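Narrative summary of target 7.
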Amino acid sequence: MDTNSQFIESVKQNDRKALTVFYNAQKESFVAWAKKRFSCDMDTIVDVYQDAVVTLYHNVLQDKIVAFTHTPEAYLFGIAKNLMYKRSEKDRRTVLVEDISDGITDKLDYEIYDRIDNEHRRSELAAALRQLQENCSKLLTLFYYRKYSTEAIMHHLHYSSVDVVKSRKNQCMKQLKKIMSTVNL
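Modeled conformation, tokenized:
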């Protein structure tokens, strides 16, 4: 069993010691990265890190994550980065610092974290689409993924007019945004 699978099994078996070891092993790297990238206090950085660990933990327990594409560490950083940006947008007190070059951050491949973050968002979006009514899910999939025109959707889904398609698309997007907002708290 590889280390990624071992980590998932440890979480599912509620192995607190393994989670504590993982938490402590990643904390210093995250704090160093966040200090260079964001202008905020240490309490905020630690809060975001703890929230990211909790999110990772719950995602594994709820089978949202059954295998890691890269590593648990990369997935954790992706979540933490996403949470940090959200907090930054929310507070408007956190300022992004552009220069992130020092010995610690040079060792890390942040491109992986960005890919994990994007993968995480796609996964959340796919789960939210599954929660929509079937006709909404089809309409949004046809429009945004398959790039159907509103007229083509009208014919494909048997709507009475293009205006009905536009109205229905807006209603479906509102529902999707509502679902996504509950996922991204």
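Residues 99-107 have pLDDT under 50 and may be disordered.
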